[in-house]
Amino acid sequence: MKDVLDELAAARRTMGTATLPAGDAYTIELQRTYDASVDDVWNAVTDPDRLGRWLKPVTGDLRLGGSFELDGGEHGEILACDPPRRLRVSWLFGPGADEWPGTSELEVRLSPGPAGHTEFELVHAVAVGEPMFPTYGPGSGGVGWDLRLLTLAQFLADSDAFDHEEFETSPAGREFAGRSAVAWGEAHLAAGGDPDHVAAAVKATTAFYVPGGNER
After folding, report:
1. What is the DSSP string of the chain?
2. Is 60 left (phi over 0), alpha (psi -120 to 50) or beta?
3. Are the beta carbons of 26 and 98 closer than 8 angstroms?
4. Whether 151 contacts 161, CB under 8 Å
5. Inter-residue contact 82 to 94 (CB < 8 Å)
6. Contacts by 162-166 with C-beta closer than 8 Å and gap 24+?
7. How confident is the model over 123-163, as pLDDT tens digits?
8. Which distant-in-sequence residues (6+ apart) come within 8 Å of 174 by Cβ?
9. Sign of the C-alpha dihedral, residues 11, 205, 151, 44?
10. 0.90 exceeded by the pTM?
């Protein structure tokens, strides 16, 4: 597997704004290039068997207008599907999530890159009133997506060579998660975040993803 610093540098992280049915939202945005065709990447993010091998097992009515549920409890509806370029879903998770419809949406966009590569963009929009942000900032979702997109890179390279659950508890995985928390703090600052809030959020995110580790 590539060095964790190489994998961390492979993604570009930004924060932005959006409007959801529930109101104003902030976005966590990840962009990276995959050494695979658009059709292959699209299949990896939409085929239930392949999706379950790098993200989580998924069930449901997997078509436009249908609903889905991941093995970890994340669930929602399929709002837009334009093969092989764009997928948008509502994304709910946690106790009482169904009482807050329209508060979280996830969109994946694919475009052809040079030499048969794929430009991949993930945008997760979350309503401003979402309760995790004051404590964790964009790292509340950003670190998890960093880990999953790293897993997707390994899956596309060799579908049998990587166990993401084992990696996340390994020294390399913990190092990656801790550095990801710092990287999301940098994105938060670049978006105008208050330095004191950013520092506290990075500390809390690091403690969550790297329990017992050194807080950055």
Report:
1. ---HHHHHHTSEEEEEEEEETTEEEEEEEEEEEESS-HHHHHHHHH-HHHHHHHS--EEE--STT-EEEETTS-EEEEEEEETTTEEEEE-B-STTGGGSTTSEEEEEEEEE-GGG-EEEEEEEEEETT-TTHHHHTTHHHHHHHHHHHHHHHHHHH-TTS--HHHHHHSHHHHHHHHHHHHHHHHHHHHTT--HHHHHHHHHHHHHHHSTTS---
2. left
3. no
4. no
5. no
6. 162/1, 164/54
7. 999 998 878 899 999 999 999 999 999 999 989 998 666 67
8. 168, 209, 210, 213
9. negative
10. yes
Model confidence pLDDT, tens digit, residues 83-119? 999 999 999 987 677 777 789 999 999 999 999 999 9
What domains are defined for the chain? 4-209 (3.30.530.20)
Query: Which tokens go with 35?
Result: 């050494």
Tokens read off for 76 = 């929602």
CA nearest to 182, candidates 206, 156, 160: 206
**Confidence (pLDDT) at 82:** 97
Exposed/middle/buried for 97, CB within 10 Å: 0-12, 13-18, 19+? middle
Model confidence over 47-66: pLDDT tens digits?
999 999 899 999 999 999 99
Place of tokens 């690091």: 206
Bigger pLDDT: 212 vs 193: 193
| Packing angle of the helix pair 171-190, 139-157 (nearest 10 deg) | 130
